[in-house]
C-alpha cells in the first residue's frame, strides 16, 4: 500500500472476504463481503485514503475492533 496520511495498514482474508484496516488515529475496522478486486484496488492505489472513502467506506458493512489508545 502506498503511503497514506490516514491509513496505516490493510489486510485481507479471501476466504471470508473480510478487509481489515488500521487507521493512523488508532481505529481498527473489519469491512465485510469485500470482493478481492476492491482490496487489490485499495492496496495498489496511489491514493489509498481516496480509494477507501470513495469505494469502501459507505459501500460495505463494518465493525470497529478497538482503539489503539
Helical segment count: 2
Number of strands: 4
- The secondary-structure element order is EEEHHE
Low-confidence stretches: none
What is the mean pLDDT?
Answer: 89
Q: In angstroms, what separates the terminal alpha carbons?
A: 24 Å
Describe the structure.
- This protein is of the alpha+beta class and 69 residues long.
- The protein has one domain.
- The protein is 25% helix and 35% strand.
- The chain has two helices and four strands.
- It has helices spanning 36-44, 48-55, and strands at residues 7-13, 18-23, 27-31, 62-67.
- It has a four-stranded antiparallel sheet with strand order 1-2-3-4, covered by helices on one side.
- Strand 1 and strand 2 form a beta hairpin.
- It starts with 6 loop residues before the first strand and ends with a strand.
What is shown here, in short?
The chain is of the alpha+beta class.
List the helices and strands and how they pair.
Blueprint: E1 7-13, E2 18-23, E3 27-31, H1 36-44, H2 48-55, E4 62-67
Antiparallel strand pairs: 1-2, 2-3, 3-4
Give descriptors for this structure.
25% helix; alpha+beta; 2 helices
